[in-house]
Here is the input.
Amino acid sequence: MSRPPQPPEAPLDWAPGLPRDSGVAGATSGGLDARGGVIEGARVAPEGIDTSHTVILYLEGVTVSFDGFKALNDLSLALDDGELRCVIGPNGAGKTTMMDVITGKTRPDSGKVFLGQTIDLTKHDEPSIATMGIGRKFQKPTVFEKHTVWENLELALKNDKRWWQSINSKLKSWQQDRIASVLSTIGLAGETRRLAGLLSHGQKQRLEIGMLLAQDPRVLLLDEPVAGMTDEETAELAGLLATLRGKHTIMVVEHDMDFIADISEKVTVLHEGHVLAEGTLDEVKANETVVEVYLGR
Amino acid sequence: MNATTLPLPVATAALGTADDRVRLFSRLGWTAIGIAVVLIAVVVPLMALVAPDGSALHLSSYALTLVGKILCYAICAVALDLVWGYCGILSLGHGLFFALGGYAIGMYLMRAIGHDGVYKSDLPDFMVFLDWKAYPWYWAFTDHFWYCALLVVLVPGVLAFVFGYFAFRSRIKGVYLSIITQALTYAAMLLFFRNDTGFGGNNGFTDFKRILGFDIYAQGTRVALFVLSGLTLVGVLILCRYLVTSKLGRVVTAIRDAESRVMFCGYDPKAFKLFVWTLSAVICGIAGALYVPQVGIINPSEMAPQNSIEMVIWVATGGRGTLFGPVIGAFVVNLAKSVFTMIAPEYWLFFLGAIFVGVTLFLPQGIVGLFRRRRGGGAA
Ligand SMILES: Nc1ncnc2c1ncn2[C@@H]1O[C@H](COP(=O)(O)OP(=O)(O)O)[C@@H](O)[C@H]1O
Ligand SMILES: [Mg+2]
Here is the structure.
C-alpha cells in the first residue's frame, strides 16, 4: 500500500500546546541508539516524534492497580521505530490494560510512558495521543455502526479534527483517493454505502483496521485482531501486516500462535502485568517459565 | 449530482462522489419548507388580519396564539432532538433554558409596562409589593429591548456552556447526566419561586402591556409574533439539518454510538458535545422569548421537571433523530393536550404517560418512523 502524496497544505494534526520543535535537539545532534550504535542522520518524524534513539514507544516501571489488584506490575517495554512486535500472554495478563495506558485511557499509578524521546504520554488525553500518531484497534471490533463504511473511513481519516473545522469540511481529492485506496486494501470497496453495523464480524475487523490505516498513525496497536476471523481472513491480515511492516510501528496482541509464527519478529510474553520473556518466537517457546505459565497449559 | 436516488453500480459508488451524497434536503423537503413559509408568512396573516370576523376563513386570536405557542414548543423539540437524537445526551432540563429565555424577554416586557401598573410606580408591581425602592443591579439596562434580546441568547448559552463544560469534562453520561439536568431545572425553579430572587416569585411576570411600543394584545402584534416564531422554527430546522448533514454531525452521531472510538480517532468529544449542547440551549432560550409575549406570562412553573419531560415526549412521539419528526410530535401532543384540558384536564397526565409508553413500545422511531417503514425501510 502506498502513501498518497501529501501536499504541503495538508493540515498538520497538532495537539494544541504540544511544542512543534520537540524533536529538534535530537535531530541536530545525531545520537546513540539503545544498543550504543551511532545512528546516521538521526531520524525525527515530521510529526515531532523524536526517534533519534530508535525507540518510538517506551514504558518503564508502569504499574496500574484496580482496587489493590495490580493489572500491570512494574512493566517495562520498548518498541523500536518500524518494528512489528507481538505480545502474548494468558487472559488477564494485562495486555489490554497496557494498551489503555499507552493510549491515555488509563492513567498509570507510577512509571513512565513515552512516545519517542520527548512526549510524555501520561500527560495527554486520548484524542491528543491519537492525533500524535498512535492508533488503536479494540479487542471487540468497534466501528460506527450507524455510519456507512465510507463514512467510517472519512471520520478516521487523518485530517484536522477540531470541531469548528468539521462544520464545513470537504474532502480534497487526494483524501478521497486515500479512502478509496484503503477500501481496496481492506477489500470493502464493494460495500462503501452499507451501514457498518450490517457487516459480518470479519468485515468489521477489517473496517476497523482500515480506519487505522486511514488515520495513518506512526504506531499501531492491535488488540487480538484475528479473533473471530476465518483462517482465510487471518492469512489475509497477516499479509496486510507484512506490507505495513517498516511503514508503521506495530504492536499486536494475539493468542493465535500460527498467526504469530506467520508475522513475528520479536515476541514479548506478558504475565501478571509483567514481562516474563522477550525474544524470537522460538526462543520464547523454549523458555521454561513461559511453557509453564502459558504455552504448556 | 443526485447520487442518492439510484442504486449505483458498485464501481462508481466506491469512487469520489460519496462525499456530496448527503444533501441538505430532498426536493420533497424543500417543497415542504416552501409551503410552510408561505403558510406562516402569507396565509395565516391574511386569515388573521384580512378575512372578516365570523367568516369561515377567519383565524381567531385564540387559534393564532395556540398555534404560535406550539411553534415555540416545536423549536424546543428540534433543539432537544439535536442533543438527544443525534448526540445521545438525554436532557431532562431543557425547560430551564426555555424559561430563562422567557424571563429575559419578560424583564423587558415588565419595564415596558412603565407607569401603567396597579401601583403606577417606576418599579414593577411585585417590587412595590415587596417594598423595594429601586431595581436590583441585575435589572440594569433591561429597559432596552436589544439588551434583553442579548440576554435571551447569553443567559441560557452561558449557563449551558458552564454546566456542559464541567459535566462533559468529568465524563458524566447517560442517566446520570439526565438526572443532573433534571436537578438543575428543579433547583432553578425553587430559586425563582423565592420572592427575593427578584423575578416576581411564584407569580412570575405578567400583565404585559406593550412590546417595542406595540400593544401586546393587538391582533397585528400577535400575527407578527406568530410569523416570527414560525420563521424561527424554519430557520432552526435548516440550521440543525445543515449541522447534522455536515461532518460535524457525523462526528456527533459517532460520539452517540461509540464515544471511545471517536476519541481514539483523534476527536475530542467534549468540544463537540459542548457545541451542540450550548447551541441547543440557546435555541430553547430563543423559543422561550418568542413564547412569553404570546402567552402573556412567565412563572417558575415553566421550570418544573414535568415541562422538560414533556419536551422529551414530543421528540420521542415524533421520531428521535429526524429533526422534522419532533415538530410533528410537538403539534400532535400539544393539540391533544389542548383538547384534553377542555374535556378532562385531570386525566391529561395519565394520557401523556400512555402516549409515552405506547410510543416506546409500538413506535420506537416515532410517527416519522411509521411512514419510513411504509415506504420500505427508509434511506439507503
Ligand atoms: N477497569 C478495570 N477494573 C478492574 N479490573 C480490571 C479493569 N480492567 C482490567 N482489569 C483487570 O486487570 C487484569 C488485566 O486485564 P486485561 O488487561 O484486560 O488482560 P488481557 O487483555 O491480557 O486479557 C484482569 O484481571 C482484569 O480483570
Ligand atoms: Mg485483552
Notes: The longest strand of chain B covers residues 205-206. The beta strands of chain B are 205-206, 210-211, 214-215, 297-298. Residues 3-13+25-304 of chain B form one domain. The CA atoms of residues 34 and 234 of chain B lie 10 Å apart.
